[in-house]
Amino acid sequence: MKTILIATLVSLVCSILCTPLVVAFFRRRGFGQEIRSDGPQTHLVKRGTPTMGGVAIVGSTVVGYVVTHVIIAINGGGGPNASGLLLLFLMVGLGVVGFLDDFIKIRKQRSLGLRARAKFGGQLVVAVLFGVLALQFRNHLGLTPASQRLSFVRDIPAVGLGAVGFVVLSYVIVAASSNAVNLTDGLDGLAAGASAMVLGAFTLIAFLQYRNQCGTNPVGGCYTVRDPLDVALVAAAAMAACFGFLWWNASPAQIFMGDTGSMALGGLMAGLAVVTHTELLLAVLGGLFAAVTLSDVIQIGWFKITRIRTGTGRRVFRMAPLHHHFELGGWEETTIIVRFWIMSGLAVAFGMGLFYADFIGNG
Asked: CA 108 to CA 270: how far, in whole Å?
């Protein structure tokens, strides 16, 4: 427990202190956010606000993890484990893809960065590498960071995917999660606050798994997962990094996380679901992200269907994603953010309730 607290504290301090340095650095170089012309007009005042602030989140997470392991090593403990390093690889890799997207937006002075094919291609490379590597690195118990079985609150014995099926599933989860957080990152602090809640849930899940590992003497309800404590360190460090960043990202934001942060955080959540064997539970814990993404899918799908049938495309929402619908309906930005945080908190609480119910039910 002490190591988790150390990772949390180091990452939080690093994020709070380093984010304003990132703000100053990007301002000097004119790395400001471009605003989509067809979006809410109230967002035009945000044009020029420094973006790519996700580098502070990713950097603080890595620093929190590394410093904690240095302290562990000084006290005679072991080094980093495969699961933790794979999670950082996934987070940093998708952060790089997002950084390229943000950088192109700034250079080209437009609200669109990487083409869709290039963005999905980058996600594909990182996700497939993660999926392949997650099936390697067996420990002394024969456990790998990931399982080839589909999971909800733990592995579902009847649903085996095979190595290829698992890698495909990894890509789907990573792409869906990273793009969902990216879509949600449209209001000051919305994605950062919601992400912190989900990451906090994964910290608790991984810690419970650590305290109830099967080991060499399995008991009822134990968890056959590898490196749960290392997983908890990464989740806690990322959660703290989000809170520290939120200090500067809350409305009115002094910096945006950009695709650099949203894609990195979404990818990390997907990776945490994979290594904690809670892949389907991610849809519940990230209920807010799922709802925002679904609103975008419904909007685009209905527009295309009605355009084919009637020649004129119709929309279900005033604007998608969902938070913009309420903005155009006259809601204040802070009202939307707080209410969406409440929705996220309820989803996380429900997801944790499902996990804990299984934990209690299995003794």
From this structure: 31
In a domain, 336, yes or no: no
**3-class SS of residue 323:** helix
87 within a domain of the structure (yes/no): yes
Residue where the block lists tokens 């950088």: 103
CA pair distance 74, 62, nearest whole angstrom: 18
pLDDT band at 106 (very low <50, low <70, confident <90, very high): confident
Q: What is the mean pLDDT of residues 308-316?
A: 83
Nearest of 281, 286, 292 to residue 357 by alpha carbon: 281
**pLDDT in the model for residue 14:** 96
Structural domain total, the chain: 1
CA distance linking residue 199 with residue 191, whole number of Å = 12
Judge whether 202 lies within some domain: yes
Q: How many CB atoms lie within 10 A of CB 224?
A: 16
pLDDT digits (tens, 9 = 90+) for 112-157: 667 888 888 999 999 999 999 999 999 888 899 999 999 999 999 8
Write down the pLDDT at residue 41: 47
Give the max Cα distance, the chain: 71
What DSSP string describes 284-330?
Answer: HHTHHHHHHHHHHHHHHHHHHHHHHHHSS---SSSSSSHHHHHHHTT
360 lies in some domain: no
Phi, psi for 254 (deg, rounded to 5): -90, -15
The CA distance from 74 to 95, in Å, is 30
Q: Which domain holds residue 137?
A: 2-282
The Cα 182–Cα 313 span in angstroms is 25
Q: Give me 217's structure tokens.
A: 């003497």
